[in-house]
């Protein structure tokens, strides 16, 4: 797949560039990322450069994963965060830099990516986050994802582990929810705080 840009009311989702490596490195010093993301830890600028110049282009070319930079429209130099759709298992993943949280940017970005995914004919998008990642869960819940329980993470974490993760599914408009999900329509974990 050739990379392409998505736009929403306030955001432009486009390609990461070399110029983003410094700000990505700064964002990824956030201590919360040690426990919520698969990124190397500690996170170095060389990790950001490898991600941007090697991994992301390879994933696009191989149709494995589509990864976008999240930017406020009109501010192309400012990286707010990153969002990805993993083609191989229909899951969405995302992170936002600390200075830009609480503004609704991530909810808007996730809504735009899921809209595009459904436009391709896919019936479902799956979400996962490590157990306890309440911020990510609150976004998924607010967009109508249906919580389906705890499963091992699909991505390998540091040390080769697949720790317990919360999972949820969003069904495309007009599609019937999957009846193959063992834990369909469970209540969201009570610790998940509402979106503001």
TrEMBL record:
- Region described as Disordered: spans on this chain: 171-196
Q: Which UniProt keywords apply?
A: Acyltransferase, Transferase
GO MF annotation terms: acyltransferase activity, transferring groups other than amino-acyl groups
- Domain N-acetyltransferase per the UniProt entry, residue ranges: 30-173
- Keyword Acyltransferase listed? The answer is yes
Q: Which family does it belong to?
A: Belongs to the acetyltransferase family. RimJ subfamily.
PANTHER family xrefs: [RIBOSOMAL PROTEIN US5]-ALANINE N-ACETYLTRANSFERASE, GNAT FAMILY, PUTATIVE (AFU_ORTHOLOGUE AFUA_3G00765)-RELATED-RELATED
Spell out the protein name for this chain. RimJ/RimL family protein N-acetyltransferase
> Which organism encodes this protein?
Rhodoglobus vestalii
The major lineage groups are: Bacteria, Bacillati, Actinomycetota, Actinomycetes, Micrococcales
């Amino acid at each position: 797949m050739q990379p392409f840009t998505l736009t929403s009311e306030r955001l432009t989702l486009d390609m990461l560039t070399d110029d983003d490596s410094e700000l990505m490195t700064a964002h990824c010093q956030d201590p919360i990322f040690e426990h919520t993301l698969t990124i190397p830890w500690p996170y170095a600028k060389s990790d950001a450069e490898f991600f941007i110049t090697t991994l992301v282009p390879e994933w696009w070319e191989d149709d494995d994963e589509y990864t976008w930079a999240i930017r406020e429209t009109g501010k192309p130099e400012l990286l707010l965060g990153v969002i990805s759709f993993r083609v191989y298992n229909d899951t969405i993943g995302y992170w936002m830099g600390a200075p830009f949280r609480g503004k609704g940017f991530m909810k808007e970005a996730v809504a735009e990516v899921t809209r595009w995914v459904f436009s391709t004919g896919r019936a479902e998008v799956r979400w996962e986050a490590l157990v306890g990642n309440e911020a990510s869960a609150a976004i998924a819940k607010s967009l109508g994802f249906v919580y389906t329980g705890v499963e091992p993470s699909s991505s390998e974490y540091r040390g080769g582990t697949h720790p317990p993760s919360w999972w949820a599914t969003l069904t495309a408009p007009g599609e019937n929810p999957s009846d193959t999900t063992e834990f369909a329509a469970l209540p969201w974990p009570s610790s998940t705080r509402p979106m503001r």
